[in-house]
Amino acid sequence: MGEPMQIKDRIERNRQELRRLAENHGMQDNKVLEQSMVLDELINEYYRFQYKKRYMKRQPTA
User: Fold this and answer.
1) What SS3 class is residue 10?
2) pTM given for the model
């Protein structure tokens, strides 16, 4: 399994955890807000990885 798939799996697990926390504690609970930040960082990591992958494939225009 490549790195993007591992990140996507982590995103999905964290998304499910966020949903569970929100149902049990409400949207304004600190646990929910902290989990939301963890999920945001994973999503950012995924997009950074995708950006680097695309950027590195580009050929110089000269």
Assistant:
1) helix
2) 0.80
